[in-house]
Amino acid sequence: MLIAVVSGFVFSLAVPLLHRTVRNVTDWLVVLLPFSLFIYFSFLTQPIAAGGVLSSSHAWAPSVGVNLSFVLDGLSLLFAILISGIGALVFLYSSGYFKGHSGLGRFYAYLLIFMASMLGLVLSDNVIALFIFWELTSLSSYLLIGFDHERSSARSAARQALLVTSVGGLALLAGLLLLGEAGGSFELSQLLREREAIRSHRFYVPIVVLIMVAAFTKSAQFPFHFWLPNAMEAPAPVSTYLHSATMVKAGIYLLARLSPVLGGARIWQGTIVVVGAITMLIGACLAIKETDIKRILAYSTVSILGVLTFLLGLGTRAAVEAAVAYLFIHALYKAGLFLVAGIIDHETGIRDVTRLSGLARIMPVTALAAAVAGLSMAGLPPLFGFIGKELLYTATLQAPLANSILTAAVLLTSALLVAVAGIVSLGPFIGRTMTLSEKHGGVPLTMTAGPVVLAGLGLLIGLLPNLVAGRIVSSAVGAVLAQPAAIKLALLHGLTVQLGLSGLTFALGVTAYLRRDALRRAVSRFDLGTALGPAKGYSLTLDGMTALARLQTRILQSGHLHIYLFIILAVTVGLVGSWLVRYYGLMRLEGWADIRFYEFLTALVIVAATIVIVRASSRLFSVVALGVVGYSMGIIYIIFGAPDLAMTQFSIDTLTVILLLLVLYRLPRYARYSTTLERLRDAAIALAVGVLVTGLTLAATAVPPISQISSYFAENSYLLAKGRNVVNVILVDFRAFDTLGEITVLAVAAIGVYSLMKLRGNGSDG
Amino acid sequence: MKVLLLLPLLIPLLTAIISLLVWDRRLQRIFGVIGMAGLLGSAVGLLRTVCKEGIQAVQVGGWPAPFGITLVADVFAAIMVVMAGLMGLAVMVYSLTSMDKRRESFGYYPLTHIMLMGVCGSFLTGDIFNLYVWFEVMLIASFVLTELGSEKAQLEGAIKYVTLNLVSSALFLTAVGVLYGMVGTLNMADLANQLAKVKPSGLVTTASMLFFLAFGIKAAVFPLFFWLPASYHTPPVSVSAIFAALLTKVGVYALIRVFSLLFTGQTAATHGLILAVAGLTMATGVLGAVAQNDFRRLLSFHIVSQIGYMIMGLGLFTPLGLAGSIFHIVHNMLAKTNLFLISGVVHRVKGTYQLSSLGGLSRSSPGLAILFLVSAFSLAGMPPLSGFWSKLILVQAGLQAREYTIVAVALVVSLLTLYSMTKIWNEVFWKTDPAEGEQEPAKTDSFGEAESSLALLAPIVVIGCLIVSIGLAAQPVFALFEKAAHQLMNPAEYIRAVLGELP
Prior knowledge:
The structure holds 2 protein chains of 2 kinds. Chain A contains 33 helices and 2 strands. By secondary structure, chain A is an all-alpha fold. A two-stranded antiparallel ribbon of chain A has the order 1-2. Chain A is elongated and about 115 Å long. The two termini of chain A are about 50 Å apart. In chain B, about 75% of the residues lie in helices and about 0% in strands. Chain B has a two-stranded antiparallel ribbon with strand order 1-2. In chain B, a hairpin with an 8-residue loop joins strand 1 and strand 2. Chain B starts with a helix and ends with a helix. The interface between A and B is large, with 101 and 123 residues.
């Protein structure tokens, strides 16, 4: 199974190159990969249906609990078959759709990455690996929606889809990590065994909420549904594959996969049912409103995703049966219809259903496929869609609570979807034949193959439902319920309530279809979505964040050095000062009597000189006062018995003053830039820093010394290092390494001065 | 193999000295690459030795610890030296094409070597005052690199850079003085022993705050990061790139070193503060980036934001958290440097850093587009690239430590990072070039030359491959970082390596 997943990634690397060199072969090679995977998975239906589970595990990063462990059970198998099967058709279709397009190699590569990630997602047993693949599907979706990246609408739709699904992705990561904490493992098969512990864990509610956010964003559930119609900026093969048949069902997959672990509780059931029901109604209504064929299909997909969600929320056996069957049905007919929409767009350049008509004459095969797929969508016998609708009504009629409300909601949704089916699969093909601007040479076989096969399968399964019932549907239902299930599907059950409801649905749907224009106007009038809906919320959030970001940056990164300095010093005083006060209280200075008169005098001179430095109106005064400070420091060294240090200090200060005088002499006089208030503020902060450092020094020196390396220096300076001046010996021997560094500093400073003087900017910039 | 500890300092120093002596642009280029390659080689050797034989220490000048200066390499330090060598080599090769002749002839190469020496010295020293010296070396070299060329914007940035960093130095020196006043020693291993005995321990914590501020300015954490966005976009791009790769990370390294070795007495307070600052740094940095419309300014703010992740693991102060921090440092050095290098190539082709005037690069340079995508998505923590793993580990560590707020912040910030990375992608690569059809800017002249673009692109390709391979081979990499984190959490081995078997 590792090979099944990895092969797509590896192949995607080679495809752009292959496409450049051997173009025609590449078209077939990319079909061959998903097709052989399809055959592989089809052969596995038998052992899986017999109750087997295939698993394989490869260590990836075991220290963080991440492994490439795959498990193939009924649910994974259903998805794997859809991914590989529809994948093969989509790749085939793309070769016709993009014939001669220079970016086709890139397109194949993205699509292969997506396929491999999607397979990885549904096969992973390790939840972190599942997350990795989940994110990769979002990423490839981003690149694919923005494939036609020169249109700004495609770019922003791609980004919107990525950001919305990434919100879910992050929620998923957090949820899965918490789940791992609660269940003690990152392997789903282990977690399944710990379900009691997980359900009673304090993380249970956060886990459920986070997982639901992930599922709802990915599967475009209310209120995150808005990204999916916008994602229709993507080329038709992408809309077919990612945004109808597979990727958007990843959220459904997640709910189905985790419902044995997390399901059953009221918060799980209630939220999912309500959100699913809202989504299915909203999706169906908005589908009626649209006139762009792809957006209509997108909203109807949203609606069906809502149906699937709400069925999984119900969680009864009948509901799960209906969900699994419907997932399958929907993948077949909706993929077919999307491919048809792509053909229409490709051949006519028009996607507005009100302007399309009479295409049956121009593309008869496509029209036939569309009609069959549309019938399945409308739920008419003898198609697979009919069986699905029966199961759906069975599920709502048997729902544990509010079954009449749920049945009514489903009835309304289904009726609207019947009308939608008419709008997309009937409307464009009947009526007056359109005149196409360019000469039409017939739809290539590569493109019609997909819709024909998918529609044909819908018909075939409708007639012979037990082709898939035992092998695929039963084992998938069994996996979701975590107990074996044997399901028999049949087209007709005799005269039942469900049949009556189906008939009613169809009748209502036909009425709606006939009055579609009036209905569209009605829905548009009551549509508050554009003004108040979540799409508005998305753009408001982005705008708000950008505004906040600007404001924050203007405040923090003001561009004024004195403000930066003030903030840093204020933080210093606040942080260090608060700690000092916390441990020492406000210190009382003691031992005033010990201060001798000349010490006091020296300190006074330093303070006075400092004030002169700051207040002086000419640089020369300041420099001289600086010298006074330095010399006074030297005197203090003498008083406390460090004549070596004092000598050093005197010579440094003499030199500094002379040099500064030489240099500063040429500079203009001081200019005053700051107001009095600013100067007061600066004085205050300077004083505060001074007080702080004084306090800190007093506190530090009050600690009784423990180890004294200085005594070692004093003792060994002459004995070991052969020098009498301890300071010198420290500088050139004990700690000569420091001196090496300081010499380097001086050398670099010299280079800097040299370059500042000699190298003038000429605007060139590397 | 004690010499291995000295080589990462001696090689850059000697290369710089030779470069200064010959003072010939062309020879300096050759020596530059050789020197950086030698540095990387010695660093790899050091890392291997440390992994095999445990923590290595050298008493410089033969004066026994704690009296002389000790150089120490544990796994963490060795990893950092390897990364410094790698980034140095990458940027050096990139500079061969991107650096202009005038700056080359005014000492660009020797200055870079000296800066690398300062960086490696900071990683390897076991003495707190010696660390200060290496910080100074690094600061002066980076300051001269910032102003080299004397363009107006450069000088403005350089003034802010050097002033704020001098404040950091002053705080650092004060902090060292306070520590010395308390316990009378400078050797970090010895300090670790002695500080544990100081009563009251509150005073140690107070002193630790000074270190936090000094290193926090260097590392550019909230609210001390002003110097970084003010200066990083002004010098030539290879200078920005090497700064982005190394300078802030030295600050982070120093924070991790002192807050795992010296100041562990009151972790609830100190590391709690670090955690809070981590969250604020992430958030304010990324919001700063969102507000930008200039390629390099945007990246500069992201540096700040990512620093938050690096100290998040330190704030959690668990082995997993520290491993996550180290992972994030390494990942970020790769991804961020590469993004800067790519911005330089974009600038070379299009002549601007303004997002609004850029476009069309996914069509004209598809290879560069892929490399950008890899680095940018790695920065945003997208799987399976390097950034994903560090994010995963940090989030996991945060959840285990029950610090849910920081986890939420980290996740939301990664979403905003993704937002601003897609902003660059949409604008620079996907959008059509607004200048299309008009006259091409004059900058495109030299880019066509095969060998020059090779020297520009080779480092980007290599780093891109590293980002991917770290993602795919996360286990061995993570095992190494885990080992480093283990040593940090258990300083006894470090202390023993420095002081020998003392009581």
